[in-house]
Write a structure and sequence with these properties.
Blueprint: E1 4-10, E2 27-28, E3 31-32, H1 33-42, E4 49-54, H2 59-65, E5 75-76, H3 81-90, E6 99-104, H4 112-121, E7 127-133, E8 138-141, E9 147-151, E10 157-159, E11 163-166, H5 167-176, H6 185-191, E12 196-200, H7 211-220, E13 226-240, E14 244-247, E15 250-253, E16 257-258, H8 266-278, H9 284-287, H10 301-313, E17 316-326, H11 336-347, E18 354-359, H12 365-368, E19 372-384
Parallel strand pairs: 1-4, 1-6, 4-5, 7-12, 17-18
Antiparallel strand pairs: 2-3, 6-11, 7-10, 7-11, 8-9, 13-16, 13-19, 14-15, 17-19
Helix pairs in contact: 3-5, 5-6, 8-10
């Protein structure tokens, strides 16, 4: 009776991933990356046995990753992927399957469809691999980095794993080419004269090589975690001599001006402080002190965009801005859309995420006496954790 085994290669160091613990043991939504791949094969009805190839020093990480699973004992890998694969293949010789699937542990999402189609293809071919068509134009370059030629992308695909073969065929191919170095098992099979068919791969079956790949994996399973934070801003500027004020970067004709070390844009100051508050930075006065002559008459958009850069560097984005302008005059309504458009432009966020409201204090307090303007701002941000 035909049987099918799965050999999962987890013996790499993951040097490009940039962590002490290899990528196959890094946590992805609370589970080691390796566990996803092992689970996919163990739960597949056409897979009869699963074995993992590991590094000599990874026994503890491995035991934690596969806790609760029933697997064949792991095999210690060699110094290269190819030598590790050969060791893994030989470990099945006592009870060899008729078919074998070889899979990289750094690919946590081999779908049931993919596994089934690779196994089914082995009824007609010596080997089968999933692969994805290339969308980009491909160029050949020389040693100096100069373009030599444009390749025909219609004949080129990106190989994935699991790669499936008749067990005895791929074992023999590996043994006869063990002193050579290849990047995947399909290349070894083809060099041995085996016929290898490609099936449609899966874009979600990504290989985790870098930190960016890990973030993509988190997005695939909806596990990328975000914190939603809010910041509160409040600013006041009194009226003085002048014939216009600036609110939200928009000049507005008025019979008074606002007094301040910079351009006294009370609205942008309040929003800036709210952004800084959301990421727990110092306030605007600490970052842009009025004792520094460099900020004399400065455009307040500089403060706002600097705070926004701090936010972006912290992996955050603005979800919503809510403001309340408190004054008797000028009337804000005629300028509301212009102000929203300007803030949208300065922060590169959609205009529908910006609220500009205005109110009076019914003649009470310094704003009621038309002595100045106060602004409240609340900024909601989303930041990657």
């Amino acid at each position: 009776m035909s049987s099918c085994g799965a050999l999962i290669l987890a013996g790499g160091t993951g040097s490009r991933f940039g962590k002490k613990v290899p990528k196959q043991y890094q946590l992805l939504n609370g589970r080691p990356v390796l566990r996803y791949a092992v689970d996919a094969f163990l739960s597949h009805p056409m897979i009869d046995m699963v074995r993992v190839v590991i590094r000599e020093c990874d026994e503890e990480n491995y035991a934690h990753a596969v806790r609760g699973f029933t697997l064949l004992p792991p095999t210690k890998g060699g110094h290269t992927r190819q030598s590790s694969t050969l060791r893994g293949l030989k470990s099945f010789q006592a009870a060899p399957p008729s078919k074998i699937l070889i899979h990289d542990a750094a690919r946590p999402f081999p779908s049931a469809r993919l596994i089934s189609e690779v196994i089914d293809a082995l009824d007609h071919f010596d080997g089968a691999i999933p692969a994805i068509s290339v969308a980009d134009t491909l160029k050949k370059i020389d040693s100096r980095g100069l373009i030599e030629d444009t390749l025909d992308r219609s004949t080129i695909v990106r190989a994935q794993t699991p790669q499936g073969f008749k067990y005895q065929d791929i074992l023999k191919a590996h043994e006869t080419q063990k002193d050579l170095q290849y990047t995947d098992d399909a290349q070894i099979a083809c060099n041995a004269g085996l016929k290898v068919q490609h099936i449609q791969g899966d874009p979600k079956n990504l290989k985790i090589t870098t930190q960016e790949d890990m973030q993509q994996a988190k997005r695939i399973i909806g596990a990328e975690s975000f914190a939603f934070l809010t910041g509160l801003g409040y600013d006041v500027h009194k009226y003085g001599d002048g014939d216009q004020i600036t609110l939200g970067g928009v000049p507005i004709k008025h019979n008074k001006g606002l007094v301040g070390h910079s351009d006294a844009d009370v609205l942008l100051h309040s929003i800036t402080d709210a952004i800084l508050g959301a990421i727990a930075k110092d306030d605007i006065g600490a970052l842009f002190p009025n004792s520094d002559p460099k900020w004399s008459n400065a455009d307040s958009s500089i403060f706002l965009q600097t705070a926004h850069k701090f936010l972006s560097r912290n992996g955050g984005e603005i979800i919503h801005i809510d403001t309340n302008i408190i004054c008797e005059k000028p009337k804000i309504g005629p300028y509301r859309q212009q102000i929203k458009s300007k803030i949208s432009e300065l922060l590169s966020i959609p205009i529908h995420r910006i609220s500009i409201k205005a109110t009076t204090t019914e003649g009470l307090g310094f704003t009621g006496r038309d002595e100045g303007i106060a602004v409240q701002a609340i900024v909601t941000i989303r930041r990657r954790e």
